[in-house]
Structures are given as C-alpha cells and as structure tokens.
Design brief:
Blueprint lengths: L5 H13 L4 E4 L6 H16 L4 E5 L17 E2 L4 H10 L2 E5 L11 H5 L5 E5 L10 E4 L6 H12 L7 H14 L10 H10 L6 H9 L4 H13 L1 E4 L4 E6 L1 H6 L22 E7 L4 E7 L5 H8 L3 E2 L3 E6 L3 H11 L4 H9 L1
Parallel strand pairs: 1-2, 1-4, 2-3, 4-5, 5-6, 8-9
Antiparallel strand pairs: 7-8, 9-10, 10-12, 11-12
C-alpha cells in the first residue's frame, strides 16, 4: 500500500479533537461488511478516545453484520430520517467511509453535499469525488477497513483499539477480500490481519457469524439462481445471472440475501467474468466480478452509471429489467478480445 499522507492524517486528528459535537460516521447505501466494519470499528476507537459518535446508514444492512459491537445503535435514514437529519445537523464533524461519492448514499446525498462543517472521506474505491474538506483515498488497499486501521495507527490512536474494534475491522477486511480470495496482492494486508489478531479476536467465529448465518430462504434462492437464472456464454468466458422482483418475493428476499452470488460462477472452469442483475423497486442493480486482468470497472462506468475496482465493480440503470440485460448482451462483444486475452493469461 502507498504511504498515507502524514499532513492529511495530522489534519484529521486535529479536526477530531476540535469537533464541538458528536462525530457522524456515514456508510454507503446497501452497506456491506467493509462499510459496516469500517464505521463501527472507527466509531469504537473514537469513543474509547473520549469522543461522542453517531453512526448513520442510508438503509438497512444485512442481519449477519448485526453482531458487530455498536450495530444496534446505527441510525437508518430510510426508517429514522428525521433523527438522521438532526444527528448530522448537531454533529461536529462528518466521516464518510467506504464511499467515493455522495451518490453512494442514495437519499442521503443532499445531506452530505450540504454539510459545511469539518469532513473527510476515507475510502479505497478509485476516482473519488471531492465533497469533503479532507480525503484519504487508497484504491490499492484491500479494503476501507484495512485503510482505517493504518489511519488509526498513524493518528497515534492505536492504544484506543480494543477487541470489539479489531473484530469490526477484521470483518471488513475478510468480507471485502472474499475471505482472502481476492484484493490480496499486497503482503501488507496479511501483516494487518496479523496485528489485529493481537487483540485476541477469533477469526473462525467471525467467519461463522457472517458466512454460516444465512436463512434457509437465502440458500434456496442461491440454488434457484444458479440452476434457473444463470446463462453461461463460453465464447466470452462469461456467466450472467438475474434476479427479478418476482423471484425475490418467491424466496422472501431480505436486504443482503444476494451478497456474494456474483462470485459463484467464477468457480466454473474458463469463466473469467460474472455479472448479476438484480431488480430493485426503482432501478436495476448490476454487479460485476472478474478474474485476471479483465477490467470490470470499464464496462460499469461506460454503460451502467457505475465504477469500482478492476475485478469488482457495479452500477445501476433506471430502465426496465429486460432492457438492462439486453444492453449487457449488446455491449459484451466489444470486450471479447479482452476476455480472450484474460483466458490466455
């Protein structure tokens, strides 16, 4: 990982210590393990340092992250929008974690754009937008949680990490690397995990709480998706899956139930690109994953109003479900040469 700018870290610590009200930590919409682990881990550290914090999320997050210390206190904007507005208005500082744009907070976007007090983004996604006073952006980092850990250390706040904070940060790293299956080209990631183990966290138990805590409906949905909703395109080394609202209702879909689905086709021989279309109430969510050098973020940015990392990205369209899938099949041939090169590599 590239060195973190010391000047920015010093300014960050100064802003924390000067904050006149609670520090608001903000996660992105449909928060995943990295987002939840980052906001709760840093919140715990700041509280141990004597600061007041409030953690905010645009909507509900998967239940298998609710074991993390502090999760029960997260204010959900879609449910408590007045309380969230009040919390931001009375806060002394805003910290946005695991998001590179206000749009990543959906209906909270305007609140972030209008925030005028001290603020910072700490994130590992590429192409961050400038909407805060400070920015710590390291796209080469495995996860925002890992980046947060290094920022905490450089701030001189390592002494305020406890087991609960270490668990949250480890969860963020574990989930955003697919249990250390990707985003792990930097040895620093494993050194970070080694340090977190010093707080006597139990990696096996954390893994069980996240990955062995699904509902039976979720498992049936996965089986149905792989059997009935997956199309293999061997000439493009690509797999395409789709989850309509009708299918989701059939299996009592809850937020987060399809997390990780897009990764499964990459286990198929000669499949290097996997795509999942999920129909939402007002848009179509598109998730991309790849192996090797195929840049999923190029397609996400060009055609699906999205972006992300080379091997993991996403986007969304406000069109009928069938039209979104049709667009993908239309543009896929443009990437055939790249996909073939990835196969040879």
């Amino acid at each position: 990982m590239e060195p973190i700018d010391i000047k920015t870290v010093k300014l960050f610590r100064k802003a924390i210590e000067a904050a006149s009200g609670p520090i608001a930590l903000v996660a992105h919409v449909n928060a995943d393990g990295d987002a939840i682990g980052s906001v709760l881990g840093l919140s715990r550290v700041l509280r141990n340092a004597g600061k007041q914090t409030v953690v905010l999320a645009p909507n509900h997050f998967p239940p298998y992250y609710k074991w993390i210390a502090g999760a029960e206190e997260i204010l959900i904007f879609s449910q408590f929008y007045r309380e969230v507005r009040k919390a931001l208005a009375s806060s002394g500082m805003m910290i946005c974690l695991d998001l590179n744009s206000p749009a990543r907070t959906a209906d909270m976007k305007e609140l972030l754009e209008k925030y005028r007090k001290s603020s910072i983004v700490i994130d590992h996604h590429p192409f961050p937008q400038k909407f805060t006073n400070l920015l710590i952006s390291h796209p080469e980092c495995s996860s925002t949680a890992e980046l947060v850990f290094h920022v905490i250390k450089q701030m001189g706040y390592r002494e305020y990490i406890d087991m609960e904070a270490a668990e949250a940060l480890y969860c963020g790293i574990m989930t955003d690397t697919g249990s250390f299956d990707f985003n792990i080209s930097d040895p620093q990631t494993f050194r970070t995990v080694s340090e977190l183990l010093e707080w006597k966290i139990d990696p096996i138990k954390i893994h069980e709480k996240v990955y062995d805590n699904y509902s039976a409906d979720r498992m049936r949905l996965l089986g149905y998706c792989l059997c009935e909703c997956m199309n293999i395109l061997p000439e493009y080394h690509t797999a395409v899956m789709h989850l309509s609202r009708d299918i989701q209702q059939k299996f009592n879909f809850l937020p987060g139930d399809n997390e990780g689905f897009v990764n499964y086709p990459l286990s198929i021989k000669d499949i290097h690109f996997s795509v999942l279309f999920t129909e939402k109430d007002d848009h179509i969510k598109v998730s991309f994953r790849s192996k090797g050098d195929f840049p999923t973020n190029d397609m996400a940015a060009k055609y699906f109003n999205g972006g992300g990392h080379k091997n993991a990205s996403g986007g969304e369209l406000k069109v009928p479900f069938e039209k979104a899938i049709e667009l993908f099949y239309t543009v896929l041939p443009d990437y055939k040469e790249l996909l073939e090169a990835t196969r040879r590599g």
